[in-house]
Amino acid sequence: MDNKELKNEDSTKPKKLSKNDVMVVFVLGGPGSGKGTQSEKLVKDFGFIHLSAGDLLRAEQQRPDSLYSELIAKTIRDGEIVPSELTIALLEQSMRESGGKRFLIDGFPRKMDQAIKFEEDVIEAHSVLFFDCSEEVMLERLLERGKTSGRADDNIETIQKRFISFKQQSYPVIEYYQKLGKVHSISCEDLPDIVYQKVKNIYNEVFDENQ
Asked: Is 31 annotated as a binding residue?
């Protein structure tokens, strides 16, 4: 990402994407709920483009010339939420560069101001997939993943902070979209293939008309 693009508030904003041409599905759930795993399966079977807010931020953090590397590293390490403007800019750039029409945006929005800003500036979400999972199961999954992931946030202290952040800041986003009738909840404590069958059932009921 060109850091000047994030800093230059006077630059002309691109035209907002049209929901008649582009479909965005937010994939939400607590850390370790299986968002990424299920998104990969949807990409393979139904041609979505999967954008992970966390992956984009980690990639930006690794760029040698990034002005935001230290900010992103500290925020992730502390289990907090990166400023909305940066996350939205990375997502929008990836969407436009891909030229795709159907997107799964995983792990975003994580708080209400992100949801509102994204829909004001980029595009209105078509729907939300919410992967519902107990903290006990998520903790077990994350600690197991942490043995090999090398991720700075896969440790018990940061995981607990992320759980608190999800309950206090992210869950209100799910409640907001529930009031709009856009949330499709999936219990995800079963094996991934069993969970995916539930996801496919929702796809067939909700998204098929957008093919």
From this structure: no
